[in-house]
Amino acid sequence: CKGPGVCPSGRTDMALRCAASLAPGRQPRGARLRRSAREGTVRWNSAAKASAVKINDKASREKILTLESMNPQVKAVEYAVRGPIVLKAGEIEKELRKGIKKPFTEVIKANIGDAHAMGQRPITFLRQVVALCTYPNLLDSPSFPEDAKKRARRILQGCGGNSLGSYSASQGINCIREDVASYIERRDGGVPADPDNIYLTTGASDGISTILKILISGGGKSRTGVMIPIPQYPLYSAVISELGAIQANYYLDEENCWALDVNELRRSLNEAKTYCNPKVLCIINPGNPTGQVQNRKCIEDVIHFAWEEKLFLMADEVYQDNVYSEGCQFHSFKKILYEMGPEYYNNVELASFHSTSKGYMGECGYRGGYMEVINLHPEIKGQLLKLLSVRICPPVSGQAAMDVVVNPPIPGEESYSQFIKEKESVLKNLAEKAKLTEDMFNKVPGVHCNPLQGAMYAFPRIFIPSKAIEEAKTHKMAPDMLYCIKLLEETGICVVPGSGFGQREGSYHFRMTILPPVEKLKILLEKVKDFHIKFLEKYA
Q1: Phi and psi at residue 26, in whole multiples of 5°?
Q2: CA angle 120, 404, 433 (to 5 degrees)
Q3: What are the helix (H) ranges across 310-365?
Q4: 85 and 484 in contact (C-beta within 8 Å)?
């Protein structure tokens, strides 16, 4: 009511009743309600405060979730790439922003393979297609090439409501899975690929975690064992811990450029059989953090070993475009398996993984990826689809980015020349930085670096004096962690200790990305050299 004589209904009788209700000293009903509500709030707040004081006088109730009550498998997870050293780097960055003086002006995060964060420029064609998919009104713009528009239209037609914002099928957009299958056939020289065996994923990590999740079973000595290389990418050990599986290490041969030796696989397998049921063999090719590229004979030996021992093969091939050394060539496990004949090709269960994050693309943030899984039991295929459906679908923008990776411009299309120029420039630049890093490290006393045949990291072995090892023990940390923390504190360079990837006892390493621009990389390497020499002098 707005007062006497004013009634929203326009009725006189209603207005008179309102006027009568407004006796002297009496407020409108709405005002009384608002005041009452305010007073109630005041009274309630006072009571709550009094109650809170009483509660605070007593001991606080114990938290439901504590380190003791939490999932022990999650607590066991470690991921060195974003571990304590990176948290320390973040603290130092905050101090620099506050004006706290350091012997350096910036933190160089060489701990992770994040290409664009290190200054690598995006591939124009990929961004054009994703932009068109994201904002279809741009399809009418003359600023975009027709070959990009053609791909964007095809992707959008595969999306619900022609929108990148809709869910996709859990296995991924059908036309993109078709493009992935076509890419694999071209890459492998005509080896057939079935879109039904392609699963689009949230980066390669999602696919690897999913396959391991469906493989793990049993308890005690029958618990699933997963054979992983040492050094390894810490995703593997992290997922194995999270799932409560058993990690079975096989060591790469550092003296032979981090080669994989089947005799070492057999040693690892036989040892693992005494305490678990090893049924999974993980391969990273090209290697992370070690950068080795496996030759054809090595891959054949591994496949034969997996076939002979009835092991499920997982081939992490996200660095397949990153091969630099002369005489080295990427061979996919799928291709070699096919060429070894039907006895192998029709029986060995193989999951292969790829991603938008590495290669020449470096599109880490899109979280695009795929896995091809062959020779799965039909009933297990259904179980895999069920598991994938729980996470609904991978990011659709990441699926679109993956499509451009497997369906790039071809000769004769208007974007081809720019695309191939950008791609080759990135890979040439990485090859130069790989050689530069190897050469500069091998000039430093007490440092040895194997050739960086592929991927995007150096994993040099470093000599750590006994005094430094003893100091590390007093701090209850690995010697190479002490080394990396001091490197960070004195130079601002953030690298990851080799202990986070695994290494032979008594050897020490760190992993460093080669992604910074050449001039910054040279400065970084010079700083590491100067630090290492001072470190040796200090602890000699």
Answers
A1: -105, 135
A2: 25
A3: 333-339, 342-345
A4: yes
Please write the tens of the pLDDT for every residue from 406-429. Answer: 999 999 999 999 999 999 999 999
Residue 243 tokens read as: 């799932």
Strand partners, 226: 247, 280
SS3 450: coil
Please, which residues have CB within 8 angstroms of residue 102's CB and are 6 or more apart in sequence? 92, 95, 96, 492
Question: pTM score, two decimals?
Answer: 0.85
CA distance linking residue 526 with residue 523, whole number of Å: 5
CA distances from 309 to 113, 152, 265, 332, 442 (A): 34, 45, 11, 21, 40
Domains of the chain by start residue, with CATH: 80-107+419-539 (3.90.1150.10), 128-406 (3.40.640.10)
Chain segment 118-139, per-residue pLDDT in tens: 999 999 999 999 999 999 999 9
Q: How does the average pLDDT of the chain come out, rounded?
A: 90
Starting at the earlier edge strand, list the strands of the sheet with 457-458.
457-458, 510-513, 496-497
Q: Give the pair of three-digit tokens for residue 364.
A: 């880490």
